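Entry for the shared binder. Reason: the reviewer on the internal report wants the predicted structure included alongside the sequence.
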Amino acid sequence: MTQTTDNRRERSRDGLTEHQRTALDLAASGLPTLPLRAGKVPFGNCRKCTDNACGGRPNMKTSGPCTCPGPCHGWAAATTDPSVINSGPWRRAWVCASAVAYHPGGAGLTVVDLDNADAIAWARENLPSTQTVPTTRGEHWLYLGRMPSANGVRPGVDIKSTMAYARWLGSGTGTMTALPDAVRALTAAKPAAPVPVQVPAPTGGGECRHRAPAYLERGIAMAEQRITAATSGVHHAVYATFLAVLSTHGRCGCLTEDHIARLFTAAQTKGETPRHCTDAWTNARTKLGL
């Protein structure tokens, strides 16, 4: 009997699947959760959210540009709201779900994902002991504190915290300790180089309101600062900032690729991918009819 069939049988007794009950328990403890389908991957976006046409969902709840009721946008769909977990679209997803995941960064946690015996041996020699959860091939080490996520920080070691999800495999053993500098240094030592901008600057014959070059320069500098200062909901902050810049400077043709590059660099420094930047810029232009 398949796991999906087992879930259906469980639902027939009390209206909830086993994974759904687990998600509700985790949400009650403060862990934002989401369903995973076969292959340990999130459910795909609905038609309205395909290619982030909705602007994306910036955080763990349903606020922000996207108001889709389903579990869209991967890690960003994770929620602690039981009314969302029990809603119709989510209930249908739970019937097909193969596992439960959570967003560590949304709960102020970081997971050091150790994928093999060598990685575990390295962690035992170099990291402070903490709560440990066995995985299929290795271990998850959980620390109290959030940081940018990154894959392949060293052989067999991934970091899962902000803008990422981890599969729920139980509470494990040990006492969770504070996120050490040794873990933070794994990503700080290898900052990602911003990818060159490949989007065109707007051109148009609208009336220029800049009055002086300093007006445009001040606007771009303020936009960079707004993105850099974002402490949560970075995706939404980037989209909102791009929208504000384009609404003010996008119709007169004064924006250059250098200006856009500065905005994209600020966004990538906060962890946005080049595709997220391009999608947010394109969606902002579309919303404004540029």
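Summary line for the report: The two ends are 54 Å apart (CA to CA).
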